[in-house]
Specification:
206 residues, alpha/beta, five-stranded parallel β-sheet, 5 strands, 45% helix
């Protein structure tokens, strides 16, 4: 039997981030990077399972440190980046976020071999609408996340990197879109994210 590691695929995928990338509380095949690669394969795009560098709770500086530690030498056909919610949760400034995000965007572009248009950045979801945020200042959370996303969008536009607003999707309070911990997205919500970015990813993988 041939292992996945020995199979050569036409395309490769690196996904970096935090709990929203690793898919806290959902099955592995429900993570949004897995759903994306599965959908591409079902659309006759030969792409490997994503290499995921992500952990629940990571901030931008912790993700930077993890990427440095992993020291991955490969380049990838596509890279997705979703990071920042834990910076907001810990009360860090949006300007500190900007500085570290710029480093992460540069790294993501480097991992595509300098192809800015092969980097796909997702906005930060609004955890303030979830049951987990009961008793917290939901308005303040929303405003801070909007500020972080404004910074993220600005930096993506400067570099010609595609930015996707999935925050509005995350503000849908349908219980079916929330995982059993009352905080993280369900596989159903992750599918909605994939639906939003797929239209741009599919054409660049020919």
């Amino acid at each position: 039997m041939i292992s996945e590691a020995t199979v050569k695929h036409k395309y490769t995928y690196l996904a970096v981030g935090d709990s929203y990338t690793i898919g806290e509380m959902v099955k592995e095949n429900e993570r949004f990077p897995m759903q994306l690669s599965q959908r591409l394969n079902s659309d006759s795009i030969d792409i490997a399972e994503p290499l995921i560098i992500a952990k629940t709770g990571w901030t931008t500086d912790e993700l930077l440190a993890a990427i440095k530690e992993k020291n991955v030498k490969d380049t990838f056909s596509i890279v997705t980046l979703l990071i920042g919610v834990n910076n907001q949760y810990r009360g860090r400034s949006s300007e500190e976020y900007r500085a570290e995000l710029k480093q992460l965007l540069d790294i993501a572009i480097k991992y595509t071999g300098g192809k800015n248009e092969h980097v796909f950045v997702l906005s930060i979801p609004d955890w303030g609408v979830t049951p987990f945020a009961e008793g917290k200042d939901r308005g303040k959370i929303a405003a801070e996340i909007d500020e972080y996303n404004r910074v993220k969008k600005e930096e993506c536009e400067k570099l010609g990197v595609k930015y996707y607003d999935i925050t509005e999707i995350s503000r849908n309070t349908d219980p079916a879109l929330i995982a059993s911990d009352g905080l993280h997205p369900s596989g159903k919500m992750y599918k909605m994210w994939v639906d939003k970015i797929y239209i741009d990813i599919r054409p660049i993988l020919k």
